[in-house]
């Protein structure tokens, strides 16, 4: 298979040199594969990447850090039959690349056979490598980034007299390029950008202080929220948390705001991922074809979204991605597998080596305000703390903060509580998903209402 490293049909080349850099990385990858074959490897794969970025942080009107980064790396994996060895380097000199191949081969010769080891099947390789409008470099220098961060923080500090302090504001921009190639003849190249503006502010003083913030992130700088709007939103959130109360222990409906709702989907993904399944360390072992969510719930993987955070024609093994359901009518349709975990389970890869691509959670309700009104009485969660999730049993217990809802209205802030349940029951008890999708993640979900959870407070 002879894929072009990159299609530029939909992208007029500008003054940036990303295409040329990708061609260089592709040439290095091909040379390394040739060396692996010459060393006797029966199969081999190479990943090559470059990334550069700029990050600035300011606090209370002063610059704290300015960081410019440039990273690169080459990773080589070889197979001698079903023995595997890997080595990596950041040095592109001839002697370093040669030593990297030698190290990978030496490791492989001293490892045991693994019946699941090897490249993904050649027939599954992507035959077309496309871009999905993911390359939008930001012509941003340090002075401009500092000005944006200062404006963001100042807008937040000016927005509310109760904002007494700041944890700072930040601006970041990064651009990455990568090539994956293997001895099946596959070579695929990708380039992507991501930009972020964030602010964290402190309201009140002394023991009554409350901290909160906001951020915006996007592939193209034009899609970011305005810096001043980010600061004002951070101020509003921090001030709204002043004078929080606890709650009496009991069972109530819990509405996970969209910015934390995706964590529930993340726990679900962990439970249906290959590593947990073949180790039988998941509460969803042997669950394909069973009802996990309510019968209206759908979860779709969409790897071809334009400007999607995880859009790609191929996974990290070169396997062609495809749009397909994870959950349909509440029933789990498949697991999330790369070729290694698939072989361990006696299944076929789902083109998810390296993780899932963009996920859409189907909404069955209205916007955020209608969800609050519909809940009537319960807890709105806007922040989760701790890692109290047992992936084997599904037991769930995390610190939380948010707001109490009474008669369909947000009434007062809540802090110092724990919410608990079991993920398997929680997923089945989802009553509503809103249309208020948080666009800052590849998991595209609105707020999620769980019918009943234990809230431990006073």
UniProtKB/TrEMBL annotation:
Pfam families per the UniProt record, alphabetical: PmbA_TldD_1st, PmbA_TldD_2nd, PmbA_TldD_3rd
Classification via InterPro entries: Metalloprtase-TldD/E_C (IPR045569), Metalloprtase-TldD/E_cen_dom (IPR045570), Metalloprtase-TldD/E_N (IPR002510), PmbA (IPR047657), TldD/PmbA_N (IPR035068), TldD/PmbA_sf (IPR036059)
Metalloprotease TldD/E central domain boundaries: 136-242
Domain Metalloprotease TldD/E C-terminal positions: 249-457
Metalloprotease TldD/E N-terminal domain span: 44-108
Family indicated by similarity: Belongs to the peptidase U62 family.
UniProt protein name: PmbA protein
Naturally occurring in which organism (per UniProt): Noviluteimonas caseinilytica
Record gene name: pmbA
